[in-house]
Amino acid sequence: MKLTATEIEIAEILEKDARLTNEDVAKMTNLSVEQTREIIKKLEEQKIIVRYVSLVDWTKIDGHQGVTAMIDVKITPKRDVGFKNVAERIYRHREVKSVYLMSGTYDLSVVVEGNSLNEVAHFVTQKLSTIDGVISTTTHFVLKKYKHDGTIYDSDDKDKRIVVSP
Amino acid sequence: MELKTSYLAKHVRTLQPSGIRKFFDATAGMTGVISLGVGEPDFVTPWNVREAAIVSLEDGYTSYTANAGLPALREEIAKYIENYFCVSYQPESEIIVTVGASEAIDIALRAILDPGDEVLVIEPCFVSYAPLVTLAGGVPVIVQTNRENNFKVTAEELGEALTERTKAIMICSPNNPTGSMLSKDEMEKVAAVAKDNDLLILSDEIYAELVYDELYTSFAALDDMRERTILVSGFSKDLAMTGWRLGFVCAPEEIIGGMLKIHQYAIMCAATMAQYAALEGLKTGRKDVKEMRKSYRQRRNFIVQSLNDMGLACHNPEGAFYTFPCIESTGLSSEEFATRLLQTEKVVVVPGNAFGAGGEGFVRCSYATSMAQLQEAMTRMKRFVDNL
Question: Which value does ipTM take for this structure?
Answer without folding.
Answer: 0.86
